[in-house]
Design goal:
By secondary structure, this protein is α+β, with helices and mostly antiparallel strands. The chain is built from three helices and eight strands; from the N terminus they run αβαββββββαβ.
Length: 158
């Protein structure tokens, strides 16, 4: 019986753990300095909780910003809850970590992107070494694509 290491799911689990750790720190201590987050998530995920008018307006995905005003940030093992202001209307949201598609902190040019099998990719893509040329790295990445998950950090690196 053959067994394989599922690097895609292990990477996703580690990156979602990083998000959980960051959000728990913000819940405990507030946002430090200029840090703020753009979080894009799948509004159709079965465990996402949001007002009906928001799910009607954003039936596929939604990006929220945690910066100047947010309230009631709670973090658990499966996701986080937060109250955000939508046009002077505070709305509670619950976002499971596995519904997150992107997590970006533009103040430090950091970001994570989670791609699923239906987005046709399965490899972790990192910035090529200085001696490698970007085109060669892209060709290698294209050759390795299959139907699994990926975390790509390239577009957020300095």
């Amino acid at each position: 019986m053959s067994r394989e290491i599922d690097y895609g799911n292990l990477m996703h689990s580690a990156m979602r753990g990083l998000i959980r750790t960051v959000l728990q720190d913000v819940s405990d201590n507030g946002l430090p300095g200029n840090h703020h987050f753009f979080i894009t998530f799948d509004t159709a995920h079965p465990d996402v909780e949001l007002a009906d008018w928001l799910s009607d307006r954003y039936p596929g995905e939604m990006t929220v910003v945690m910066q100047h005003w947010f309230d009631n940030l709670t973090v658990d093992d499966d996701g986080f809850g937060v109250t955000l202001n939508f046009g002077d209307s505070p709305e509670p949201l619950y976002i499971p970590y596995d519904a997150i598609r992107t997590f970006v902190d533009p103040s430090v040019e950091f970001g994570l992107r989670f791609e699923s099998a239906d987005e046709d990719a399965d490899v972790y893509s990192a910035e090529p070494d200085a001696e490698d040329d970007a085109a060669s790295a892209e060709d290698q990445t294209e050759a390795k694509k299959k139907d699994a998950d990926v975390v790509s950090l390239d577009s957020f690196r300095k």
